[in-house]
Write a structure and sequence with these properties.
Blueprint: E1 2-4, E2 7-9, H1 24-29, E3 51-52, H2 94-97, E4 128-135, H3 154-157, E5 165-172, E6 180-187, H4 192-195, H5 202-211, E7 214-221, E8 230-231, E9 239-241, E10 246-250, E11 269-271, E12 276-281, E13 287-291, H6 305-309, E14 345-348, E15 358-360, E16 372-375, E17 380-386, E18 390-392, E19 394-402, H7 408-411, E20 418-427, E21 447-457, E22 460-461, H8 468-473, H9 475-482, E23 487-488, E24 490-495, E25 502-506, E26 533-539, E27 547-555, E28 581-586, E29 592-596, H10 599-602, E30 608-612, E31 622-627, E32 633-640, E33 645-651, E34 687-693
Length: about 700
């Protein structure tokens, strides 16, 4: 038992181990204290000052900009109405070419001022209001019990909405005239310290926590377009993906000895998905989910180069699932390869609750923040993905086969075979002009050129001394050998279907420039990078190219406090302060929207959602749309600007409190001494919320 925030808790100690951007609780439960440990990437590949780094908007990928309506509704059927292949090298879909993305956005608002990090409220612009779509514990099946905060069971949680919703999207159900849709959500991890009473037995706590992980698909309904959504309990398409859900491994690693276990001697079937952070929605209407901090769930020998490179150690885990399931201890005979079965991109079909979800080995294995797909002019599908760890890399996958409009069955195989690349960036400015403070070079911008270094091409390994299967299972080790650029934690990577440019959120890197660590480069221009930055990539030709140019869209911070910032030349005194960019999205006219994770530890303000103008005289203008409650992170933005609506996942509100002494009461905000209405509790609950005009 450990002492956490003044209470006995059946997890390992969390305090005193953080030097990253968030609280000790998040550092322990979300990423296994990654920032407090040794840097996993100790490779000696070139890292000169002039080597620098580099989305498809998941809504834009569907041809509706950020409006989020499923592209397949264009044809009125899931199997026949997909977006067209790219046009002119920009990846524009049929919907975009037919008028979507033209003209001014209908989502007009006055930016809110930055909100103090200790405010327990969801703050939205004047003229807007908000309400939850669905909350942790809400019953989603007909036989699911109502949520009981003080009487939780694993059986109940398996039938209820999971915890810590991250990536989310809303896909319109074909033929519903905009009145029915599916909500997809990741459940990245759990905050046991605020979920459970101290009296709960440790075994029960572990079982409920495990059931709160995974994925959810929930049907939504509304009276008319432009009205708020509500979820439908017992709808036939509702589904929970649990630790017991079977996933099919696809691609070259399927059947490999590297992934076989005593429970799966074929090496093709994996139970569960873990650490699901961000994701993407494909042009054929499936969802991609990134398995990120999976290492924190496993005990492993910790001595091999692979274990060290992936942060696997021979110590008890925070949640201690290894006490209940032998596969979570890779020291156990027959489970030596279990860790190799996580760290993939997952693809699920939300429209078929009987379908088998897939893990795609062709996209490589690392701490995937997510993946976002675009159809190149050539017809090949291109997926971008960042490895969210200090000094790790940016990747690109190009499918072998081409996208076929209207052939959903074929398109659902595209991520199973193709080429894999990792990015290397070179800066244009002289070395002496990169001072580590973020000062703009004399040419007026942070910019340069880059190339995609091949790891797998034509079904063959391009890495000396490594087989195809080894490259894909130990992708970090393979990438180390070819000399890519070490980055400041690539989070979301989103190509714009309006311009074809690709945007990379680099959230921060507290270790850059410290003794023994790589120093600032033009693409990562600040030492001890507290606030992060955004990289903008322009591929040479279409997205299948191996060459590109790049520039920094912004270097984040709070200009009012003297932070050195850069907003593509836009006056710094006219922007909203922003720190630690995490998830990205686009609206229907091509504006970039950024959700943040870590602003309280960066600029001392609540995390939020921000709109950024990308073109014209106001390029680089940052406007804050909302701020999340105390201790919370903003995730999974969905921008339905044509309906004047915005959706976000509010994750881990009140994370620094305890069950007995909450730090937040979001989203129900039951007053002290009041009787909660049905479904409400006086405690913090992660939730997907919708923000809409008060006149809606």
């Amino acid at each position: 038992m450990s002492e956490i925030s003044g209470r006995k808790f059946a997890l390992l100690p969390m305090l005193g181990h953080t030097k990253g951007k968030r609280s000790p609780v998040t550092c322990a439960l979300k990423c296994d204290n990654a920032c407090a440990g040794d840097v996993c990437n100790t490779s000696a590949n070139s890292y000169f000052r002039d080597i620098a780094s580099t989305t498809l908007s998941r809504r834009a990928a569907l041809g509706f900009g950020a409006a989020g309506a499923l592209a397949v509704v264009l044809g009125g059927a899931v199997t026949s109405g997909e977006t067209a292949a790219a046009d002119g090298g920009t990846g524009l879909s049929a919907a975009a070419k037919n008028g979507f993305g033209q003209g001014a956005s209908k989502l007009q608002f006055t930016a809110i001022p930055a909100v103090a990090s200790d405010v327990d409220a969801l703050t939205v612009p004047a003229g807007f209001t908000w309400q939850p779509v669905i909350r942790w514990g809400d019953p989603i099946f007909k036989d699911a019990p109502a949520f009981q905060l003080g009487n939780q069971t694993a059986a109940a949680q398996e039938r209820q909405f999971g915890y810590n919703n991250d990536y989310s999207d809303i896909l319109e159900i074909p033929g519903s005239k905009g009145r029915r849709a599916l909500l997809f959500a990741n459940h990245e991890y759990t905050n046991e310290n605020i979920m459970f009473p101290a009296s709960m037995p440790a075994g029960q706590m572990r079982a409920v926590g495990a059931a709160a992980h995974g994925l959810s698909v929930v049907e939504l309904e509304r009276k008319n377009k432009n009205k708020p959504w509500s979820y439908v309990q017992g709808a036939p398409l509702n589904r929970r993906y649990l630790n017991s859900t079977r996933y099919e491994l696809t691609g070259p690693v399927a059947g490999s000895d590297l992934v076989k276990t005593v429970a799966d001697p074929e090496g093709r079937w994996i139970n569960g998905t873990l650490g699901n952070c961000s994701g993407g929605t494909t042009p054929w209407g499936t969802i991609l989910s990134g398995e990120e901090n999976f290492n924190g769930y496993f005990v492993a020998p910790g001595t091999s180069a692979a274990d060290k490179r992936y942060g696997l150690t021979n110590k008890a885990t925070a949640r201690q699932w290894e006490l209940d399931d032998p596969r979570f201890n890779a020291n156990n005979a027959g489970y030596e390869n279990e860790t190799n079965r996580f760290g993939w991109i997952v693809e699920v079909d939300p429209f078929d609750p009987t379908s088998t979800p897939k893990k795609h080995s062709s996209l490589g294995r690392f701490k995937h923040e997510g993946a976002n797909v675009i159809v190149a002019k050539s017809g090949h599908v291109v997926a971008y993905s960042g490895d969210d760890e200090r000094f790790d890399y940016l990747y690109k996958f190009v499918s072998k086969a081409k996208y076929r409009e209207g052939d959903r069955k074929h398109n659902m195989t595209l991520l199973s075979e193709g080429d894999l690349y990792v990015a290397k960036f070179t800066g244009n400015a002289p070395t002496a002009e990169i001072d580590g403070k973020g000062t703009v070079p004399s040419d007026g911008s942070f910019d340069g050129t880059g190339e995609w270094l091949p790891l797998v091409v034509g079904g063959k390994s391009m890495v000396a001394g490594m087989s195809l299967e080894e490259v894909l299972v130990y992708t970090r080790l393979a990438a180390d050998k070819v000399g890519p650029t070490k980055m400041d934690r690539c989070e979301d990577v989103q190509p714009s279907l309006h311009t074809g440019k690709v945007y990379v959120a680099c959230t921060n890197n507290s270790d850059r420039g410290k003794p023994g660590k790589e120093g600032a480069t033009e693409v990562n221009p600040r030492n001890e990078n507290r606030d992060g930055h955004i990289v903008e990539i322009t591929e040479t030709g279409d997205q299948t190219s191996t060459k590109f140019t790049w520039n920094l869209l912004m270097v984040c911070g709070d200009p009012s406090t003297g932070d050195v910032t850069y907003f593509s030349g836009f006056p710094a005194d006219r922007v909203s302060p922003i720190s630690c960019p995490d998830n990205l999205a686009f609206d229907s006219v091509g504006n970039l929207w950024i959700s943040t994770d870590g602003a309280p530890s960066g600029i001392g303000k609540a995390d939020g959602l921000f709109k950024v103008t990308l073109d014209g005289p106001e390029r680089g203008r940052v406007e804050q749309f909302l701020a999340v409650p105390r201790d919370a992170e903003t995730c999974g933005p969905i921008i339905h600007d044509t309906e004047r609506s915005v959706f976000v996942s509010v994750q881990h509100p009140g994370e620094e409190g305890t069950f007995e002494a909450p730090n937040s009461y979001f989203p129900d905000y039951v007053a002290a001494g009041a009787t909660p209405r049905p479904g409400q509790v006086r405690a913090p609950r992660p939730a997907v919320v919708q923000v809409f005009p008060t006149d809606a």
